[in-house]
Amino acid sequence: MKLLMLFLSFFKIGLFSFGGGYAMIPLIQKEIETNNYLPASQFADIIAIAEMTPGPIAVNSATFVGYKVSGVLGSLFATIGVALPSLIIAILISRMFFKYQNHPLNESIFYGIRPVIPALIMTAAIFVAETSIFPNGLSNLSLRGLFSNPLGVIDIPSIIILIITFVSLIKFKINPILAILGSGILGVVVFSIF
């Protein structure tokens, strides 16, 4: 039963996601929380692992969650669940899409979907930032606690790594792969000191 639930959860994610893996992150988070697959605190770890491993983030996330919930079979069911809707849709509508690609209704649908994608990506970024920068979460954050003991509320080493990585990406335009590797090395150094 658990395997079927994993399959259906990730099938739903694959079916209703537009805009690639990053746009799927809020849907994955919602399914994980709704079905109690993993604690919410582990969601940032899922994103980090899915980012570091080769392949699409949605498939990597599904594989990781499935493995955590039901081992190798769980990872198989979750991965097939997230990938199957794309395969089915591609097979069913490929001919019709190219025939009606420039139809005004088709273009209007995609113009309506496009603004949702950045919103979904920003939602995922806010959630990951919340779990990375605020160790106790934003729901437990109070202005009094922030001003009376900012070091107990904000994870300073994470902010240091965030700023260094952001400046490196924007100002020096380093390769994102190098940014990930550098951030990992910096994390080992900073978190072993603090």
What does this structure look like?
- The structure is a single chain.
- The chain has 194 residues and is mostly helical.
- The protein folds into two domains: 2-114, no CATH class; 119-193, no CATH class.
- It contains ten helices and no strands.
- Helix 1 runs antiparallel to helix 2 and helix 9 packs antiparallel against helix 10 (176-193).
- The longest helix has 43 residues, at 57-99.
- It starts with a helix and ends with a helix.
- The model has no long low-confidence stretch (mean pLDDT 81).
Q: How are helices and strands ordered from N to C? A: HHHHHHHHHH
Q: How confident is the prediction overall: mean pLDDT? A: 81
Distance between the termini: 44 Å
Biggest sheet architecture: none
- Unreliably modeled segments: none
**How many independent structural domains?**
2
What is the beta-strand fraction?
Answer: under 5%
In DSSP terms (H or I, runs of 4 or more residues), the helix count works out at: 10
| Oligomeric composition of the shown chains | single chain
What are the defining features of this structure?
single chain, 194 residues, mainly alpha, 10 helices, 78% helix, 0% strand, globular
TL;DR of this structure?
The chain contains 10 helices and no strands. It has 194 residues and is mainly alpha-helical. It has 2 domains: 2-114, no CATH class; 119-193, no CATH class.
